[in-house]
């Protein structure tokens, strides 16, 4: 068993809150280390410190490896801190098809009166949208509405 | 006081700030003025409790007495909590919750920016993670301060009353003692005195936009860092600790 095989297995583990993404697409899996025999160590990092999905992800990774008669220990590391830049190209594409706008370059969030980023509508692709709430259904999303097609949509917040 | 004791105390103070405020915000769950704000406040609550977990974990390791992060969160008595008085104050109306958050976020933003450069790698890692979340909180509370302050006569008056009332707790955010002295010398934490002016300037810029102002001078309260709290904390802890006290060692 090589580490590429383990990475391939992890492609089956999806994010419980955004099930269209795998933990590999998300960039949550940082490393895969062979410990001994059938035992592997998987290093993961949280998207947000309080993200309740992390425990589920840990359990899901363990049960996925068990299917191939392997055991896993999962270690959670905070550094380097997760950034939306780690979201794979494939992941971004899947998000958009799912109806969630992937992260756009937003500039510095602490700048209150700075320019507002353009967040396109994932459905009609219009750039005329408005922010409804900075905090959406999960920690990693914000709520927007399209001014053209009127559809409300989730935006996967940029975190850098 | 040894460096280890000072580090433990500092971590406890900051973890308690986050846990107690996180718990207060969670009281809004199902009671927000609008659905979006119900979700926003509980999202912020979740971030804060997540931050507290990381800080308690590290505190427990530094202490080295076999306690876990849950022991620290759930099994200490009131006098052993070291959070500032600001965070335990009652939610009041939505405006008061926002003002409390506004003062806290502005302080945390500058503090955690400093902690990112900590010589302690673990603290620097926690801060680098946390600062990204704080920036969102800061923007949220600042935007609401402007919207409420520069809103209707009713919202302006209410939020101004909260600014005046809660300004009594601002000084304590900058509390310093031997703990800070030791850790500043080690380069583990920044000296909060160095950003007091920036803190006030940042806040005043937004308060001005919101047509609000801090009172000229206000009697300042403190005690939280030494474990001397307002009456509100005991009631909060009774709810927070109920399950662990009633069913010791229970797990989900």
Folded structure, characterized:
The complex is a heterodimer of chains A (160) and B (252). By secondary structure, chain A is of the alpha/beta class. Chain A contains four helices and seven strands, in the order ααββαβαββββ. Chain A has helices at residues 3-10, 23-26, 53-67, 89-98, and strands spanning 29-36, 39-44, 71-76, 100-101, 129-133, 141-146, 152-156. In chain A, the strands form two sheets. Chain A has a four-stranded mixed β-sheet with strand order 4-7-6-5. Chain A has a three-stranded mixed β-sheet with strand order 1-2-3. The longest helix of chain A is centred in the middle third of the chain and has 15 residues, at 53-67. The relative contact order of chain A is 0.16. The mean pLDDT of chain A is 90. Chain B has 252 residues and is an all-alpha fold. Chain B has a single domain (3-246), classed as Ferritin (Up-down Bundle). The mean pLDDT of chain B is 96. Chains A and B meet through loops of A and α2 and α6 of B. Chain B: This is Phenylacetate-CoA oxygenase subunit PaaI. Chain B: InterPro entries: Aromatic_CoA_ox/epox, Ferritin-like, Ferritin-like_SF, PaaA_PaaC, PaaC. Chain A: Residues 4-67 form the MIP18 family-like domain.
- Structure summary, number of beta strands of chain A: 7
Radius of gyration of chain A: 17 Å
Query: Number of helix segments of chain A?
Result: 4
Determine the CATH superfamily of chain B: Ferritin, core subunit, four-helix bundle
Quaternary organization: heterodimer
CATH topology of chain B: Ferritin
Q: Separation of termini of chain A?
A: 35 Å
Please report which band the strand proportion of chain A falls in: under 5%, 5-15%, 15-25%, 25-35%, 35-45% or over 45%.
15-25%
The CATH topology annotation of the largest domain in chain A reads as GMP Synthetase, Chain A, domain 3
Main beta-sheet annotation of chain A = 4 strands, mixed
How is the largest sheet of chain A built, in terms of strand order? 4-7-6-5
Protein name (chain A): Phenylacetate-CoA oxygenase subunit PaaJ
InterPro entries (chain A): Fe-S_Maturation_MIP18, FSCA_dom_sf, MIP18-like, PaaD-like, Zn_ribbon_PaaD
Organism (chain A): Brumimicrobium oceani
GO biological process, one term (chain B): phenylacetate catabolic process
């Amino acid at each position: 068993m090589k580490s590429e095989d383990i990475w391939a297995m992890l492609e089956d583990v999806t994010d419980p809150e955004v099930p269209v993404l795998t933990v590999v697409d998300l960039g949550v899996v940082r490393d895969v280390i062979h410990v001994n025999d059938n035992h592997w160590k998987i290093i993961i990092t949280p998207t947000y410190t309080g993200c309740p999905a992390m425990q589920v992800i840990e359990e899901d990774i363990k049960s996925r490896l068990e299917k191939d008669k392997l055991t896993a220990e999962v270690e959670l590391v905070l550094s380097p801190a997760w950034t939306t830049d780690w979201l794979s190209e494939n992941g971004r594409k899947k998000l958009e098809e799912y109806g969630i706008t992937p992260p756009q370059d937003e500039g510095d969030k602490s700048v209150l009166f700075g320019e507002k980023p353009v967040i396109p509508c994932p459905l009609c692709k219009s750039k005329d949208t408005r922010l409804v709430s900075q905090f959406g259904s999960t920690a990693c999303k914000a709520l927007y509405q399209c001014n053209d097609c009127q559809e409300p949509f989730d935006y996967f917040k940029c975190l850098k | 006081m040894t460096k280890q004791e000072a580090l433990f105390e500092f971590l406890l103070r900051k973890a308690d700030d986050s846990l107690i405020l996180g718990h207060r915000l969670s009281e809004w769950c199902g009671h927000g003025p609008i659905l979006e704000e119900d979700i926003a406040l509980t999202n912020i609550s979740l971030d804060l409790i997540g931050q507290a977990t990381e800080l308690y974990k590290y505190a427990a390791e530094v202490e080295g007495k076999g306690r876990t992060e849950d022991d620290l969160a759930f099994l200490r008595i009131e006098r052993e909590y070291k959070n500032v008085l600001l965070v335990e104050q009652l939610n009041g109306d939505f405006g008061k919750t926002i003002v409390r958050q506004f003062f806290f976020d502005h302080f945390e933003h500058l503090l955690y920016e400093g902690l990112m450069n900590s010589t302690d790698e673990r603290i620097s890692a926690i801060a680098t993670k946390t600062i990204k979340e704080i920036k969102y909180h800061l923007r949220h509370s600042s935007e609401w301060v402007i919207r409420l302050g520069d809103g209707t006569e009713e919202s302006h008056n209410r939020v101004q009353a909260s600014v005046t009332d809660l300004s009594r707790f601002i000084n304590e955010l900058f509390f310093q003692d031997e703990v800070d002295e030791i850790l500043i010398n080690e380069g583990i934490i920044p000296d909060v005195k160095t950003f007091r002016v920036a803190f006030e300037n940042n806040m005043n810029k937004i308060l001005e936009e919101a047509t609000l102002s801090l009172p000229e001078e206000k009697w300042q309260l403190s005690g939280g860092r030494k474990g001397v709290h307002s009456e509100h904390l005991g009631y909060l802890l009774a709810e927070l600790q109920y399950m662990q006290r009633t069913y010791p060692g229970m797990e989900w």
